[in-house]
Write a structure and sequence with these properties.
This protein is α+β, with helices and mostly antiparallel strands. The chain folds into two domains: about 170 residues, Orthogonal Bundle (Arc Repressor Mutant, subunit A); about 210 residues, no CATH class. About 50% of the residues lie in helices and about 10% in strands. The strands form two sheets. The protein has a six-stranded antiparallel sheet. Helix 7 packs across helix 8. It is globular.
Length: about 400
Amino acid sequence: MVPGQPAPVAELTPPGAGRSSLVASIAARLGSAREADWIVEHAEAEVGRRCGHEREAAERSPEDIAAALARLYRARKSPLHIGPVVSRNDEFLLYQTLIGTWPNEPMGPAELETYRGRIEAYMLKTAREAKVRTSWLNPDPDYEQALLDLVRRLLCGPAAERFLADFVPFQAEVSGIGMLNSLSQVAIKMTAPGVPDIYQGNELWDLSLVDPDNRRGVDFDDRRRLLDGIGRSASEAGPRLADYARSLCENAADGRVKMYATWRALGVRRQLRRVFLEGDYVPLRTRGVHAECLCVFARSGPEGQVVTIAPRLWTKVAGGPVVRWAELDWGNTIAECPKGMDVRSYVHALTGETLVPVRNGRRLVIPVAQALRNFPVAILVSATAAGG
């Protein structure tokens, strides 16, 4: 699936389930086959639109997505809706936006008021730029007011408690998957060919909207403070670095785990500069029960070798919603080591652990369960290059 492009029906529908079964599933919840058909048509684009962002909803099963969308859509049938009715496109965009930007930490009244203002400004801008029901040159005050009223009802009005009771648990599941996907993205962009791009303070989770959030300043003082603390803690951890890395994962909501992964990966790039400037890129084969749920490659050069293991499709590995990444069972999944490279051991750049490849037939392989036991992703440096 290409980031930023809608996921095709085939990717949203698991093997054995077709579009008709998905329509029937939603129709059973809504009581309307016509509305169900519309939801299936638009859910792809609305869910797929978040691909490549911090929050990736496309890994949820289509049944889960259908259930959540159907529940949220029923709120529009409420008698609270008076006057112009917000279009289904704009309403589904609102749900998608709330899922993608809902803060990781609980909001107090002041924070919720600020958040509501951001969402209102964003929804008004997108509706005008869509030029379907309103526009910058020909605004429709009644429709725009209906759109703003819907935001306020969902977040602050009498119906907010009912809506949020359904919304927040679903959003939390999507958010957890999004954090894991983000760490995979960090591992890939830091070690793949090219120059890694870290945009405007994105060392931490960034749940910003395109507009008006893109005008906000970056708190670099806070990031320096966090980075200094991470550096001190990692140094103090010494041989227990894996425990510290794991503790960051257990408190992923504060964003330090992403900064930590970025910092350690940049250290590898600095240490093995020629590997990343001049070295080869070698895609590596995976085998086993979850072979398709991994992106694995190596960078090889005169200074040494770096192997990156970045999981994907987390819910498929879990067999359902991902509760704790550390409890995922990778079973017999393995990643083959590059041919022609006699590497006896690797050092895990994120945990400090030493990993020894094992013989599997004629090839040396890395057991994925071992590589990912203390961190969701792995950047493995050949021991000679790491100074081992």
